[in-house]
Amino acid sequence: MSGLEFEVEKSMKSRKLADLTLWSELTSAEQRVLGALFRKYAGQTFFSLLPSEVWAKEGLSGAEAKLAFAMLRRKQWVKSVHKSWGECSFYIPECHLAMLTLAYTDLLERSVEPMVGSVRCVIKEGKPHIAGELLHLLAWINKEGLPVTGKGTIHKRTVQKLSTLTIMSPEDFVQLEITYDHKALYPVHVVILLDLLLCLNLVQQTDRGFEIRQDKLQQWIKLSWFEMHGEVFRVCMERYGGAGSEMQHFRYQLAVLAPGVNRWCRVLCGGGNSGFHSWLHALAGWGFGEIGENEDGELAFRWLIHPVEFLSRGADGGVYHVDRLHEQEEMQYGKFYVQPDFEVMVPPNVPPEVCWRLEQYCERITRDQMSIYRLTKDRMEIAVASGVKWEDIADFIQRHGQGELPDQVFVTLKDWATVGENVQDKQDMLVFATTNPDYPEQWKRERNRGSTQNSPFFYNGETQGLMQLPSISGIAVDCDEDKSDYFMIEKSAWNERKADIHENWHREWRKYHLSTERQIAMQAIEWQVKLGIQKGTDTFVLIPHQVEEQEQWILEGWCILDPNETASRTEWRTFIAEDWDAMRLILPDDV
What we know:
Elements: H1 3-24, H2 28-41, H3 52-57, H4 62-74, E1 79-83, E2 88-91, H5 97-103, E3 112-114, E4 119-124, H6 130-144, H7 156-165, H8 188-199, E5 203-205, E6 210-212, H9 214-220, H10 225-239, H11 245-257, E7 265-267, H12 274-286, E8 289-294, E9 299-303, H13 307-311, H14 324-331, E10 337-338, E11 343-346, H15 352-361, E12 362-366, E13 371-375, H16 377-385, H17 390-400, H18 407-435, H19 439-448, E14 475-478, H20 486-498, H21 504-507, H22 514-527, E15 530-535, E16 538-548, E17 554-560, E18 570-576, E19 582-586
Antiparallel strand pairs: 1-2, 1-14, 3-7, 4-8, 5-6, 7-9, 8-9, 10-11, 11-13, 12-13, 15-16, 15-19, 16-17, 17-18
């Protein structure tokens, strides 16, 4: 491991610890409620708290679980939304899932573990990263446009062109079984590309077609590859991985519990879960990882990126703060090589903004770890006709190219640019001069509009793409927007409940008449609170479940074996009323 990789992993671990600090500040009851909900639902929506039997096994009464849940809502660990038909549902926000995967590792069924032994073969290599494909597609749309038919679909010939424009293929994503309109027309890899552009707010869909948002585009190309990967990876994690808590747990375990970049881990498929396979193939298609097989024929995977860094976002709305290590990586960017035959060899560490400029002057020939472009007369003439000066092009190639530009290439490029300037003078500028004499300057201003924006944040999870996501369909309004304090509402309700009973029932230990004891036990069951029982020198804390009517009534429920433990162990027991000496209701601490 290089020194830089070691420092990156150390930075990731310290960030994990910082996130866990926020979780450790929760009370024991809040941690147990959050853990049970996370284990059951991950980030999927749910409509009510789990049954009281579940909380009893966690050592919590139903009332304690309800109060802890209300506090989790206050602290934004759980949020709620109203469906359009009025039903309210809850969910754990996506920004917490990576940290909770780490916090509750021991409670989850493991899907990923470190590799023991070696990898026998690589089943699927990672393709060149998806951010470069998006940049190429944006450049193509910027030049060619992407109109739609009267039915709102892309022309069939254009779809065929888009399908061959990228190194991605349907085989990378067909196993995801993604739902979308016009499946017969749009291949799945084309849909994912367009969906990504829409969700990143780089493209908007209008009645005329798919149009680039120039302000966002100018911000986008100024990002580093690392920042682009972060934005794209979060879209992929949230939109394409398949619904269901099992798949969501798998995705986050793979991101959080894998040993690190370029290090293999074993994937436990739990009976051959096809969803696991489909997600791994998609990650390889996006260039995020590679799939292998160990000596026993078991599935293995290794990351080509640092996924944890993309998931560990702060509370500032998700804006990336590229740390010193990544700034150092980005400063060591590479340069392209211009060959005598006009081919341009572009290493993977050439910055996005440089690649974007190359897209204006070149045609892409091949895309790989070392991509190959070719300078062409047509592209050069179009660029010059758009207002770019030959001097600017020459300066760009000299500054970002490695070594001296071959003489014959320099002379030819200058001739092409001169032809472009002549065409511009004779044709285009005649039209624009009558409507806007400052066209070149206006073009530059339009291209630079938005470049002074403070935030490089693109994906917000709310933009509608081409995908049909059942997890968010029908949502009308965020219930938490009204700023209601549900914890204080619960406490207020408890004040009213306590006013209806004798204060001694929960204030002190006492022996009561059998009929009163039964009434107290029934009250504990109705309120879903704990019940304390003393027998001689022993004190028992119960979570009562029911009163059985026999010759002498008996009480059944869960007995907490050690109330001082963080996660209390419980045991089902039966108590006869005449066996105890004193009792009292045990209300939640906060009431």
